[in-house]
Amino acid sequence: MFKEDINEIIRNRRSVFPAQYNDKPVSDAFIKLILENANWAPTHRLTQPWRFKVLQGDAKDKLGIFLSNTYTDITSNKDFSPFKYEKIIKKCKSASTIIAICMQRDLKKRVPEWEEIASTAMAVQNMWLTCAANNIGCYWSSPKLMEYMGDFFDFEEGERCLGFFYLGNYDKSVEAAIVPKREPVDNKVEWL
Length: 192
Description:
With 192 residues, the protein is an alpha+beta fold. It has one domain (4-188): NADH Oxidase (3-Layer(aba) Sandwich), CATH 3.40.109.10. It has helices at residues 4-12, 28-38, 58-74, 82-94, 113-133, 172-177; strands at 50-55, 97-104, 137-141, 159-168.
């Protein structure tokens, strides 16, 4: 009666962080697949607000330098953490690919902005489920630093960054260490 494959994929979807990735690159063909699947997300009035910027090689290293330098610029000496500075750079280097998750606001504002953000998040969920079904590690990060991405990317009018989607291959031993954490759904549902 129920399609078990999709249930299993949804329940086994996990964040796999860049520190857990190995050196095997994620193929461009797979990246195109997840972007195509993202493009089929629900969207009110067909605004299709999701936009993606794919960073690989030198581009992702430049992103790491930009983010770490921005972190330095916006952080007081008292709050500055050399560990965090290095972690930003290492996270970008460890990922096979980084996809900047962007949202293009409908310039006619035919739908509320939250619906555009929700549509973009659903596009990312399609990407995440595709990664989970294919044993590719991924992780959506929304650091405060994304507020400064207009200094790194040339955004269209109404476009902004909602975070970064890190991708990488990982060893199966990592998967065993990832423990699901969910309270029972009955604690979150009221039947009327």
